[in-house]
Amino acid sequence: MRILKIQTLRGPNYWSIRRHKLIVMRLDLENLALAPSNEIPGFYEGLVEALPSLEGHYCSPGCRGGFLLRVREGTMMGHIVEHVALELQELSGMQVGFGRTRETATPGVYQVVIEYLNEEAGRYASRAAVRLCQSIVDRGRYPKAELDQDLQDLKELWRDASLGPSTEAIVKEAEKRGIPWMSLPARFLIQLGYGANQKRMQATMTDNTSILGVELAGDKEATKRILAASGVPVPRGTVINFLDDLEEAIENVGGFPIVIKPLDGNHGRGITIDIRTREEAEAAYDAARQVSRSIIVERYYVGRDHRVLVIDGKVVAVAERVPAHVVGNGRSTVAELIDETNQDPNRGEGHDNVLTKIELDRTSYQLLERQGHTLNSVPNKGEMCYLRATANLSTGGIAVDRTDEIHPETVWLAQRIVKIIGLDIAGLDVVTTDISRPLREVDGVIVEVNAAPGFRMHVAPSVGIPRNVAGAVMDMLFPNDQSSSIPILTVTGTNGKTTTTRLLAHICKQTNKVVGYTTTDGTYIGDYLVETGDNTGPQSAQLILQDATVEIAVLETARGGLLRSGLGFEAANVGVVLNVAADHLGIGDIDTIDQLANLKSVVAESVYPDGYAVLNADDVRVAAMAEKTKANIAYFTMNPDSDLVRKHIQKGGVAAVYENGYLSIVKGDWTHRIERAENIPLTMGGRAPFMIANALAACLAAFVQNVTIEQIRAGLKTFRASVSQTPGRMNLFNLGNHHALVDYAHNPASYEAVGSFVRNWNTGQRIGVVGGPGDRRDEDFVTLGKLAADIFDYIIVKEDDDTRGRPRGSAASLITQGINQVKPNCRHEVVMDETQAINKALDTAPDNSLVVILPESVSRAIKLIKLRGLVKEELHQPNTTTNPVDSQIGVTYSVLNKLL
């Protein structure tokens, strides 16, 4: 077997709208293409020996063991690789279950689709599954050592990708509330929400967290002084920088027992408590000095360690932290009890797990000795042996929930303290013998105030009720159900995407909000170009959605990005599907128009249930997408007598209709006329039907997003098919004695669209400079030739500079073949070089003629035209003589007023 390609999908996609994280592997079975599993000697036995847990896979039989039954009876290797890749992830701790396997148009080549939780792990599991299956085919087995290595690697990848307990709790709460989130490529930042409504977090610090509060909390001695000045009970202590000052510091705090800790430490590093001798104090000083230059010496207060979590000025959780320990059973040594405790699957390395494995240090041995034990001692049954003096979870401690036990006065004090320090999220370390009594009654103290406190002791305590502290964070960041997102309007289709996207963005700008939009020409925010290029994929969408200035996102969505990575967002408020026609067929395993329609339907299916799918009622495949989406439906049509639209309106639906020369919005029993087509510059004076259709789609998308009719009208009348607003889309130039039209038409549907305008040109000869991208099918080029012969009087056939792997001359020959099939006597010639072809057409054009240039490079074609001297770009100003009364008709004012 041979892996041809592996792609990573990160959003709604061709394979699944709900399952966003998918690996797509293009797998060539080669000599196994005709060999089902039951015909491969020993394969079933070898597979069961390697992965007996596959017994849990149901597969199509729908019962436990169903997949292995399929393997025994005979199934293709692509299907087996799918299940093995999923099982390898499962065995490594990643809960995945979705998979698909489909043979492509190329016999023996399969697309194997598997779900993943971590991208690297998903890709690794895909490759490992192929290795495992190939090994069993070749050798009858997959060595256990190799399988163990695969699983170890996968576990490490999963562990390294872990968000950590605190961030994971926040992300899960965001997902539960429907708040989109993404990881940002710096400093472990997480973005919650989109655009101008986003919030950012780093661990448990938010973008509202005060830097002054963080700095103050990080300086333990300064915090203590501030709190002491405010009447808060804090430990008696001092700061030293030299060992020579240690003895005096001990005397100043009242003598032993004492605590020594680094001034700038965290996670309990370098802290030693309950120090009782000078020798212990000097050793503790050395340990703290490894963490910080300045050392805190404090009086040791007897009591239990508690963490009080305050979010947005309110105490939301309290946990008692019990230091790492083991409990004797009367049989096992301390060392054996530690090993047994560390076998708990919840314990792992570091502080990113629910619990941390117990590791011993110098203080552990001192503590055991003080309790009369060594590692070889056998504690009595029920006897607790402490192994750490500090109660941090990161050193192996456990947490006991005490939220319901804290005294109201301590709640008040904690909330006051966090206000004094100036933090929105803070963890207070409180030492007290009884958390249910006021601190002043039991000689309790506030030991520290922590910025960015960990959440794991509260969301997963060892004993007691888990607390939804992440919910309190969400309530703070997005109070009163404040929106976390921005309106997202996405546009797809075979033709007209860029023009419609730009027009829709222009209409949305009339609301005076900042609009970010992506097109095949570049990414824009407001009136400024951010990034040039064909930016119609998920990365460009992410750029817009990550920008904190953007208030509305309008995103062009092309087939390439959908296939490569899926959508770049969870869902949209409006999804526009313009049309589906033959283009790029045979590329990316999309071989038929129906498959292309299924791909484009991702945009319609990924609209929120309370949003709108804006569909072309005149395109059967697009109209059928209404059955796939849970969103509201809005149709647009060039046919005022459309039966589909009529029934839709009768049911209370909304539609945009081209009727009696007007672009109109129709809903229920009223019609609101927006503007005459001839007064809309984009429609070329009403002579470009496909531009009217694009305008209808944009108007309808804006309308269902609550843009007013007046704002829509203003957008339509100020948007033009010009080089500045729609480069390469019906750009018409007046060269004095003739005109030139530049349009990036490159498939049969777009040729037809341009032809609908060109046929209306009746003042002179119609000249076409035509070609097409080299990665199209032979029959597509023949079709382009046929269409060109029907549109133009004289044709110059050229080829793109980049033939995309096709032999030079092949595309031109096929186009010529199509011309001859339709009009053998049509005047035409081949000029391979695009620049030469354009110049020849412009040089030889008769008076009053129209030269239509369908270029590979729009910018080059426009430059060649402008080099000819004084050129006027025709922008088609609206007809200002139209009676304004005709532009708006309210049929039933009571209904209209209610709706608006």
Automatic annotation (TrEMBL):
<feature type="domain" description="ATP-grasp">
    <location>
        <begin position="224"/>
        <end position="478"/>
    </location>
</feature>
<dbReference type="Pfam" id="PF02875">
    <property type="entry name" value="Mur_ligase_C"/>
</dbReference>
<comment type="function">
    <text>Catalyzes the ATP-dependent polymerization of arginine and aspartate to multi-L-arginyl-poly-L-aspartic acid (cyanophycin; a water-insoluble reserve polymer).</text>
</comment>
<dbReference type="GO" id="GO:0071160">
    <property type="term" value="F:cyanophycin synthetase activity (L-aspartate-adding)"/>
</dbReference>
<dbReference type="Pfam" id="PF08245">
    <property type="entry name" value="Mur_ligase_M"/>
</dbReference>
<dbReference type="InterPro" id="IPR036565">
    <property type="entry name" value="Mur-like_cat_sf"/>
</dbReference>
<dbReference type="GO" id="GO:0071161">
    <property type="term" value="F:cyanophycin synthetase activity (L-arginine-adding)"/>
</dbReference>
<dbReference type="InterPro" id="IPR013221">
    <property type="entry name" value="Mur_ligase_cen"/>
</dbReference>
<dbReference type="InterPro" id="IPR011761">
    <property type="entry name" value="ATP-grasp"/>
</dbReference>
<dbReference type="Pfam" id="PF08443">
    <property type="entry name" value="RimK"/>
</dbReference>
<dbReference type="Pfam" id="PF18921">
    <property type="entry name" value="Cyanophycin_syn"/>
</dbReference>
<comment type="similarity">
    <text>In the C-terminal section; belongs to the MurCDEF family.</text>
</comment>
<dbReference type="InterPro" id="IPR011810">
    <property type="entry name" value="Cya_phycin_syn"/>
</dbReference>
<comment type="subunit">
    <text>Homodimer.</text>
</comment>
<keyword id="KW-0067">ATP-binding</keyword>
<protein>
    <recommendedName>
        <fullName>Cyanophycin synthetase</fullName>
        <ecNumber>6.3.2.29</ecNumber>
        <ecNumber>6.3.2.30</ecNumber>
    </recommendedName>
</protein>
<dbReference type="InterPro" id="IPR044019">
    <property type="entry name" value="Cyanophycin_syn_N"/>
</dbReference>
<dbReference type="InterPro" id="IPR013651">
    <property type="entry name" value="ATP-grasp_RimK-type"/>
</dbReference>
<keyword id="KW-0547">Nucleotide-binding</keyword>
<dbReference type="InterPro" id="IPR036615">
    <property type="entry name" value="Mur_ligase_C_dom_sf"/>
</dbReference>
<keyword id="KW-0436">Ligase</keyword>
<dbReference type="InterPro" id="IPR004101">
    <property type="entry name" value="Mur_ligase_C"/>
</dbReference>
